[in-house]
């Protein structure tokens, strides 16, 4: 049985696979900060070399932002495209990391061994599961599996500004029969999942400006408008007492969950107390009439991701600042239109602005939610492959995060996407001390070997 | 006429006086930041040498914080104590300064020559007016005027933590018949003023903590409480639609302005449009049923001086932060008790805190408002001296800022204080590009010579 041979090969070469992943993690490819542009390019080149060494024809393609990586193996069967991203989140607050985020290592923990460092779980560890599965396959079969295109981007954590034009310009090359996207997680510690419902994301930053300079609150306090007072007053009204977003029209295009899906989710036995307890919380903070699973998978949200203004250093400064700023994002579901939501937000803010204040908007962008068609037999085949590897029935689930690429693949390339990933809830992605379980990495590689056996070639 | 001789001497030696002031301004004596502790000590030592060179017996006195400077000249007449502070505000945002804040220079501006740099107006330029007046006096008379104590502190911009114990421990040495405090401004560009009503100040910093780490809004958005949402919701309710502070009991101890004072203020013809226009504003933002002069002089306020939480760097990070913080201060009037106001604020915040959130409080401190008795004939003598120098009738006015020292002098040393200063509304104290008009410095020195002629010796 060649599948068994591939799985054995994966087991035997796991230490080498880990070493390659950590080599990639040592490159600080933070896409959101221009200081790390060269590192992003370096990560892309590293992947190109990796793919070439496996027999892919591969290249790094320049864009106005960070490069795309494309690898191609022509073979028999359905054309499958695999997607991941090599860029990572910023690392601040750096002081909360127990070690250098870009000097990864394998650590023993009470819950098993983990690979620790920025990008371990999001998304370098995940994309390497597929590369390592291809490597073992080739070692055993002498050739890569099926008919494959590899597609890695380097702007996923910074809103993918180059993605849409790139997909449009390279649609012939990239239009496959099915896309595999590896940027999601397990449903539970040992329960694999295929995501069929993804929230969209709309985000925007704004500054409220008032006086032409910072003022002294002794001289101007009381009579001069304080932009922090304005921004707290406005943003403090973004949610009502029931946890609902107050933006006019916000829920207009939100569909109720189909009864069958609601029932399936009910059956998952989601333990929200454990989910929240893991991060030190007890009480769901979303809409009071929705289950916690609905709150994170199928209901839209508004979050203030950053706020700043005035004196924030040590000690005290009785300043009336000239400006205050915030970064706000919305997780979107169903047919919510990111542009419409952001326009509504901008109008809502503007309508509440007192005299003497002006607004400056930065970087609005967004992507809609995606709901997959699961009639393609590859979905059921993959569900079986995952269930076999993890010895637990795999689930079709929702995902609170936004993976806009799934929507773009559908809209621009006309291709369905299957989202399979091996992240855990405690991976601390986007946070200090990010990790990826060694089990996720190992069984992730094995899972892809099983999936390829069923759907490739 | 020896007064004329002293005034002439002041005119002739003005360039030297400016050079000495700029030498003091080159010492970055930021009291609120421990990094500048040595600079504060250096500024104190510089002043000690200056006072000694004039014939004062002077010394720098250690405290648990920054040193106090005391100079003493024993002579005939009422014992007068002069107070100023040698510490300065932090300089951030540094990028808004047109030049190094600690490399002062004299600049030509459309409104006349100014001394530009941190501390020019608050309070180094002001305290040097008195020293330079003493210098010219001594040059002409051969001796210092009257019976003088000089008292400079170095913690005024950081809440004066050492002041009360120091006053208590040195009350015999520091208890004079009258205090002169030079840390205030002119009423208008050419209208000198004696402040007889000062607002108090209560300030506090707090942090709201929720999850035990930063979370990813894709995974936790909607279900996990966001401390920025909590802090904006709470602080957004600090003022009502009429500009009133909503804190329970906030106005309980606020007296209405006596009719006579209100009438005098009405007569000052305060041009609030020009006052606000100077900083790019048009509309008074305080209590809608109060005049702008009441809003800054005789009404209490609540201001958010700083707020921060989440990701505030370049680009976007869809984080749900673990905490959010703010610095809040209250300007107090009449009989408002700082401790009572801060206790009310803390209770008000705590009462609105949702589940899973905890509060951490930092650095509460405060000082009450002060209202001077102006029956001492020195007040009227000083008003005459100022009116003569500036050729405009000097006014008895209120002051929006808090100069707690006036209250401490009264409470601890049993001594009344007369607040005279030469700052202008556009001095940008506490802001980038702080300046002191050369006219303020020059006529300030001359004013003190006239005041000393009338009340010393």
TrEMBL record, chains A, B:
Segments crossing the lipid bilayer: none
Origin: domain of life: Bacteria
Every Peptidase M20 dimerisation domain range: 199-356
Pfam families per UniProt: M20_dimer, Peptidase_M20
Molecular function terms from GO: metal ion binding; peptidase activity
GO terms, biological process: proteolysis
Alphabetical list of InterPro entries matching this protein: Cyt/Met_Dipeptidase, Peptidase_M20, Peptidase_M20_dimer
Keywords: Hydrolase, Metal-binding, Protease
Protein name in UniProt: Acetylornithine deacetylase/succinyl-diaminopimelate desuccinylase-like protein
The species this protein was found in: Rhodobacter maris
Phylogenetic classification of the source organism: Bacteria, Pseudomonadati, Pseudomonadota, Alphaproteobacteria, Rhodobacterales
